[in-house]
């Protein structure tokens, strides 16, 4: 078997297609996701046990735990699921993948996901040109799904063809004589083999060929299968490479969960296999130690299917109670290194508190987070306008990411406040809820305007337009006032009683902002008449000027809502 440079580049290209598909799929579902999809997913993962059932059902249906875990990583990356919710689904997927072993044993049947993925692209492709954004984004998700599994298919096809050349593995036959060390060697071989062929099913097929040829016995085959359980986590890890911190944590949990399962089963390995053999003997009248050559492959395959099912089911039963602890461990092992990674809500994701007042206190904490994000957005826009920074693209990405956070915060806090309003509440509490709705609506609009200023800055850069030093100083003076206004929001949100707010300071600040806007607007028209800059440059300057003044209006609205004023 030869494997040259072209084969390696094909492998690299397949990996690129796989990761790109993951990116398109994740971005598509993130854009398309409405509250209805979010509610469906939350219902399917309402608690860890429902999550296990969901993971089992989905994996049994599509016969690919890799597909399930990649989709879970995608949903977590899009903010549709939390790390905690994903854990049960992954546990269920590990049990669901055992269904494939039984189908292969009984029917030699396995669904080819590629035969589903390509027609999906065919159906979805025309909708990429739809006028409705929601339809277009859903189409992007399905196209990304198809691309991802095309990449996965060619990834499997472009690796060294060990499956059709199992004699390559004959060299490990002498390593069966070292007791428990042999078990560890074959666990490592199984893990590596599954990584290479990118399929636990193909790994199992190779293992069975090795058994049929008498190179290894049932014990070593089971050890390879334990290793395969670890190797199969690589697909999710690859998918998380282009994802956020939460998706990376999900992939890390998948790896830790499978490793922990492998560790405990190795401690009881000999006894566990003896129990499997006794079960096989009593139920089927067969034994892995006493079969003729004609039936050896089928008997070992049956034994491995029983082993695989028992191993993954018991592993889930043991570890499902430790999900909260495992979540803390994963977060500790992979801490968020930058603020952009904090995508999910921090205070109200656990549901309503015992009383409406306590629930509103949690919502207020999230609004304080909202204020911090607006603070950082303002600083980013300052850097974009005033600094001749080489990190222009990086700052633009930060603005885009933070603006998306403001969208998420508005939707999630609104949903939470709606639930609060459904309960038995007082008139005072009802007023607070309405004011919080006003706050987050105006705060989200501020995020949108900062994003539009970023778009304008990008257009200027593409057109090679730069503001003069005089204009930059005018904008600096105005945006300093805007930043002071955002600071008043943050300060007012810190008050224990949000009804006690000094609103006059905000009004004075707004008056200064309006006066500066009017002053600079007149200077703009004077410069335009004098021909000091082009009409295009003038339009963009006026656009930024008016955008900043609008932010000042929204700052007043937020502070009035905090103060309880109409």
Describe the protein's architecture and organization:
The chain has 566 residues and is mainly α. The chain has two domains: 5-333, no CATH class; 345-563, Methane Monooxygenase Hydroxylase, Chain G, domain 1. The protein contains 22 helices and no strands. The protein has helices at residues 5-32, 35-44, 48-62, 65-77, 83-96, 98-107, 113-124, 133-158, 180-197, 200-212, 218-231, 234-239, 245-267, 269-284, 293-319, 323-333, 356-386, 392-422, 427-462, 469-494, 504-529, 535-563. Helix 4 packs antiparallel against helix 13 and helix 20 runs parallel beside helix 22. Mean pLDDT is 77; it is low at 339-343.
Number of helices: 22
Helix and strand string, N-terminal first? HHHHHHHHHHHHHHHHHHHHHH
- Rg, alpha carbons: 29 Å
Low-confidence stretches: 339-343
Question: How many domains, in number, for the residues?
Answer: 2
Kindly report how far apart the N and C termini lie. Answer: 78 Å
Mean pLDDT over the residues = 77
Which percent range describes the beta-strand content?
A: under 5%
Largest sheet: none
Number of strands: 0
The structure class reads mainly alpha
Shape: elongated
What percentage of residues falls in helices of 4 or more residues?
over 70%
């Amino acid at each position: 078997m030869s494997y040259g440079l072209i084969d390696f580049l094909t492998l690299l290209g397949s990996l690129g297609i796989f990761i790109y598909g993951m990116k398109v799929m994740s971005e598509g579902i993130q854009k398309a996701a409405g509250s209805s999809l979010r509610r469906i997913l939350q219902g399917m993962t309402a608690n860890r046990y429902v999550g296990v059932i969901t993971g089992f059902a989905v994996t049994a249906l599509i016969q690919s735990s890799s597909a399930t875990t990649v989709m879970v990583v995608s949903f977590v990356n899009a903010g549709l699921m939390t790390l905690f919710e994903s854990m049960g689904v992954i546990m269920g997927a590990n049990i669901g993948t055992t269904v494939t072993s039984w189908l292969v044993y009984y029917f030699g049947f396995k669904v080819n996901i590629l035969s589903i993925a390509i027609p999906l692209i065919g159906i979805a492709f025309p909708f990429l040109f739809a006028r409705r954004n929601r339809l277009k984004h859903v189409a992007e998700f399905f196209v990304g799904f198809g691309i991802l599994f095309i990449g996965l298919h060619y990834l499997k096809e472009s690796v060294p063809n060990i499956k059709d050349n199992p004699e390559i593995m004959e060299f490990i036959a002498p390593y069966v004589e070292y007791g428990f060390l042999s078990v560890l060697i074959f666990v490592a071989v199984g893990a590596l083999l599954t990584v290479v062929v990118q399929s636990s099913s193909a790994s199992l097929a190779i293992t069975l060929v090795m058994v049929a040829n008498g190179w290894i016995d049932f014990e070593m085959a089971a050890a390879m299968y334990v290793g395969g359980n670890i190797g199969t986590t690589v697909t999710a890890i690859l998918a998380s490479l282009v994802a956020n911190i939460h998706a990376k944590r999900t992939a890390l949990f998948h790896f830790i969960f499978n490793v922990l399962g492998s560790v405990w089963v190795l401690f009881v390995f000999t006894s566990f296999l003896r129990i499997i053999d006794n079960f096989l003997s009593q139920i089927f009248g067969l034994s892995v130690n006493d079969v003729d050559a004609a039936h050896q492959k089928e008997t070992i395959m049956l034994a491995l299917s029983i082993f695989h099912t028992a191993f993954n089911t018991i592993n889930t039963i043991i570890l499902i109670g430790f999900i909260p602890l495992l979540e803390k461990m994963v977060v500790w092992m992979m801490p968020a290194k930058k603020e952009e990674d904090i995508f999910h809500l921090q205070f109200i994701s656990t549901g309503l508190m015992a009383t409406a007042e306590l629930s509103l206190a949690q919502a207020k904490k999230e609004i304080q987070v909202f204020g911090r994000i607006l603070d950082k957005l303002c600083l980013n826009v300052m850097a974009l306008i005033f600094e001749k920074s080489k990190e222009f693209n990086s700052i633009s990405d930060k603005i885009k990411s933070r603006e998306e956070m403001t969208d998420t915060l508005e939707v999630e806090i609104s949903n939470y406040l709606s639930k609060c309003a459904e309960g038995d509440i007082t008139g005072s509490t009802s007023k607070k809820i309405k004011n919080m709705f006003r706050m987050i609506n105006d705060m989200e609009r501020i995020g949108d305007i900062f994003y539009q200023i970023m778009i304008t800055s990008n257009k200027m850069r593409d057109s090679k337009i730069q503001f003069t030093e005089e204009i930059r100083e005018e904008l600096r003076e105005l945006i300093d006032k805007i930043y002071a206004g955002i600071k008043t929001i943050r300060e007012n949100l810190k008050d224990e009683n949000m009804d006690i707010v000094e609103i006059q300071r905000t009004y004075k600040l707004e008056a200064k902002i309006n006066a500066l806007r009017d002053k600079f607007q007149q200077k703009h028209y004077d410069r335009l008449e004098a021909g000091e800059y082009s009409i295009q440059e003038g339009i963009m300057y006026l656009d930024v000027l008016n955008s900043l003044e609008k932010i000042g209006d929204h700052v007043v609205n937020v502070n009035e809502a905090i103060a309880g004023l109409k």
